[in-house]
Amino acid sequence: MEVIFVKGKGHENEFTVRFRTSTVQELIDSYNSQVGSNAWVSAKGRYLHALYHEFKRRQIDISLIDTGAGMRLDLRVALDTSGRHLVPVTTL
To answer: What single string gives the DSSP state of each residue in the chain?
Structure first.
């Protein structure tokens, strides 16, 4: 499953501050909580938008889940040992 959303800049929302104060592990947990979820509401779009931008702001390599137009939500991830790249995991 792939989620498409507009990756505009400067559009803060109710999730922006929450993610800005989260740890990297909390960001990853937030992403993983959405994996496999087929439900869609506008709040989920804002949530994923803010999460995407926070990964980018922290210079975390999310190329594994970045589709160029959004984030795929079919793969659970973890942070690699360098602390800079997301890697796939089979179980959490």
So the answer is: -EEE----SS---TTHHHHHTS-HHHHHHHHHTTTT-----HHHHHHHHHHHHHHHHTT-B-TTTB-SSEEE-S--EEE-TTSSBEEE-S--
Contact between residue 71 and residue 62 where contact means Cβ atoms under 8 Å apart: yes
48 with 71: CB under 8 angstroms? yes
Distance between CA atoms of residues 90 and 76, nearest Å: 7
- The end-to-end CA distance of the chain, in Å, is 19
The band of 79, judged by pLDDT with boundaries at 50, 70 and 90, is very high
Question: Using one digit for the tens of pLDDT, what is the confidence trace for 50-67?
Answer: 999 999 999 999 999 999
Tell me the domain boundaries of the chain: 2-88
State the pTM of this model: 0.84
